[in-house]
Records
---
Amino acid sequence: MGYLYIILAAITFSTMEIAGKVIADVINPFQLNFLRFLIGGLILLPPTIKVLKNKGIKLNRKDFGYFIITGLLCVVISMSFFQLAIVYTKASTVAIIFSTNPVFTIPFAYFILKEDLKKSTIFSLVLSLIGIVCILNPFQASQGGDVKGIILCVIAALTFSIYSVIGKMKSSRYGSIVMNCMTFLVGDIIMLILIGISKLSIFKNAVSNSSFRILSDIPVFQGITHSNIFIIIYLGVVVTGLGYLFYFLAMDNTSASTASIVFFIKPALAPILALILLGESMPANTIIGVLFILAGSLMTFTFTEKKNGIEDKVKIND
């Protein structure tokens, strides 16, 4: 059953950038980010309440302080950069680069959680970075928009990795579903405050004539029509709500490292779906970059599985 959840999560996550790209020109990326996580957080709320009740947990000020940090990292920073990246470059490129986040999680875990950092981990990180450079293609000068989108996506992947590490600090207390649900909802409250600030005259005047004008007067519901509302609902319910739920269920039925196969399937599946649904082509440098990223991710997965196997044997012997 665990592998069925992995397949379902991989398919839903692989459509995330494609759905976002379809409405990128008509819906403000920050507005879409807010709506997506509002819907996704509400989808996860019933199982979250159930988990909190079963564990006998009553959330206090420290808990909400922690969720402010995770909400900022995940929803406000990482996913905002992610949505902006979709505006500036191909959906397939964003999907490929964002899938490197499990590789970046390991060095952050070394610095923040003081976890061991092996040579194989460093090598897998180098392979992934080479893959990103291949996709970036710095020798091709005509990629202005793509370069901006790629850089934004790298920032999104890096900050999501930090969120994953920070989340690991208290994952045993809350569980994955509670942590992500509260992160989504608290992050969305912060997003709503920032949207309110974007409507202030003093702020609008400050950014109206700059490259940051996309931050000005961010709508909440304006621009939603009968032609795009179903895509917004799809992103909120299926991708963010059910997608994360499938991913958590995959972890519960297998292991965290096995469930991370989702991020290895996505770089291969997302470009195929983007080709079929959006007509996006994959140049040779992108294909080469994907191969490097897949190799780096596979090495990370193999190392993690081997490490978990050794730990399990030690526990049995003890």
---
Amino acid sequence: MDRDTSPSLRSMTWSHIVERYRFRKGDRSADMFSSALDGIEQLAVTVADGPLSSKLFGWVSMFELCIQQTDAIPYSGPYLRVSPLASGAVEFRYFDTAVPARQWHREVPPEATVPRFEAFVDQLHWIAS
């Protein structure tokens, strides 16, 4: 039996992820949540336009950007979820355990989204040097 490769069971291309965030931009107001979405969009653009686009795999779940190291079925292994918060902050949460108290997480202002992601990738050695 062939493996199901429908879009819902696979990662998305980074260009498609960027388009999803840009498409939603037209509906955004100037509220705090929209600022957080702008930070996540910038992260998606940074990955799409850089060397990580061929090394990391992502998908969008409602407003959250999810990123994993392997091109496996989404949610099937450890992944990083980057979420906009109503406060305007962006939350990073690494799902490598089912115990929320043991999950690595940080909240940053939208303009710190890309630097926080770069630090995460470096700290967890996601990309071999």
